[in-house]
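Researcher: Next sequence.
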Amino acid sequence: MDTHYKEDIDFSTSLPEVWRLLTDNERDILRKNSTIQTYKRNQLIYCMGDEPTDMMCLLTGKVKIFKDGVGGRCQIIRMVKPIQYFAYRAYFAHEKYLTSASAFETSTICSIPMDVVTDLIYKNPNLAMFFIRQLSIDLGISDERTVNLTQKHVRGRLAESLLFLKDNYGLEEDGATLSIYLAREDLASLSNMTTSNAIRTLAMFVNEHILAIDGRKIMLLDVNRLKKISKLG
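Model: Next structure:
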């Protein structure tokens, strides 16, 4: 894990939503107390059971929030994209982390001590409302995913996950290839299914000319059919 000098980071572009809510003095406090760290692919950022100490913002890269369930089976709870905040819910709830987080690829993260964040929140109601809104959005997404991942069939779950990855990370220059390369195990964990089911369903989508696959690269050939499969469940 590498640590960068704060002077290397333009906080106005790296933390735009929070930055514009702060006064000049508050911005100076944030700048002086932040740490910029780079994590390698698959490196753990925090572990379930750890004490939460920092709010984190992903600057570059991709991060997965996951939990090991019954029998050690991994479930991906959430995917984090650049300029999204994470790792602060447990602190507000006075809990230890209920999940773990790791880097999907080389990722740069800005960490800010939660005692600094809390002090700013007490003094700045706009910042408090920002976190209330973020937590509310995350809860809504979590509620929707809980229903979809428990009620949809495997085809619907996998289609939804592929569309989620498209919306979250976008496509490459060809306009079809997902800009994230997932192992089959990760795609299965995101879709709440076994790896064998994920592989079998991907093969079905390829045979139906909905997808094309080259190693970990997935090309979406028919987004409209994916949306229909996801909707029908």
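Model: The mean pLDDT is 89. The first helix runs from residue 11 to 14.
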